[in-house]
Amino acid sequence: MDVINQVLSDITPQDASWRRRARERLDQLAMPPWALGRLMDLAVDLAGITCSLQPAVRHKVIVVMAADHGVVAEGVSKYPQEVTRQMVATFLDHGAGINALADQAGADVRVVDMGVAWGTDDLARSRRLLSMPIAQGTGNIARGPAMTKEQAVACIENGIQIAGELIGNSGYDLLGVGEMGIGNTTPSSAIIAALSGESAAKTTGPGTGIDNERMRHKIAVIEKALLVNRPDPENGLDVLAKIGGFEIGGIAGVILGAASLRKPVLIDGLISTAGALIAQRLKPEAADYMIAAHRSVEKGHTIALQYLGKRPLLDLDLRLGEGTGAALAMNLVEAAARVLTQVKTFAEARVSEATE
Description:
By secondary structure, the protein is α/β, with parallel strands linked by helices. Helix content is 50%, strand content 9%.
């Protein structure tokens, strides 16, 4: 816990003085007041996050956390568990949705094996794969805890380490978090229910596209998991250990690590936002460094975003995960930074201001 506690102590709110300076400049741009709307709001956030009127966001990376879940034994997904490993291979082969959208955004992709049941040893030659497995999948949360407290700590510490390496060693300015793990909408919906106080019926969606009958079963499985494990909603680590996932804890760690280094993080869909909720519960100020990329069709995602106090940048009926929404939103983050840095003020452009 020493690593986590040190990072938590390093996280402070956005800098109010830099936010004020950004707003003052944006108010003077050669355009009607706040004419670029939420892009200008985002520019203020970037200044507050980075303590700069020249926020660096052009060196971008998507971190895709992969892990498996014991709860698939309860029949909550329409896809077999080996798909997790197969999709990791596809990410590394540059053939998945996240690869196409990250390319368009000018972002790199880094895949992390946090606990893929079928293993990734034969894929380890790829420099894009980081192998940091906690175990070969979590326990079945319908029968008991997902992991031990020690494993939950290790998940978060892995994420913190990855953020530190990507920012400190590789020089990335803007991070996005995504995931892959068959069955992972089940623990994510359970986390959102536990931390928001909403019912499993309200936080649970179709995930990979299950039918209504299996959907009712999935809700019942989550209700059972909450009853069996009784996670403490005031303790993010307890919630992660009892009903979470290795990739969810890793996402929380990446967010915390980035926040401690004053770097913005784009949150993707349901699973990534469940990780963001864990990070927020561990350190509320970490939410200052989160940018909600989009609103997915999973109804629990809307609840999670509201709980975080985040308004998503996009609403495109996405439900793929992988970090695809984060990749799409990177274009908007860079646009906001360019509004702050490239658009001239009335005085700089020698344009007449509005009359009273």
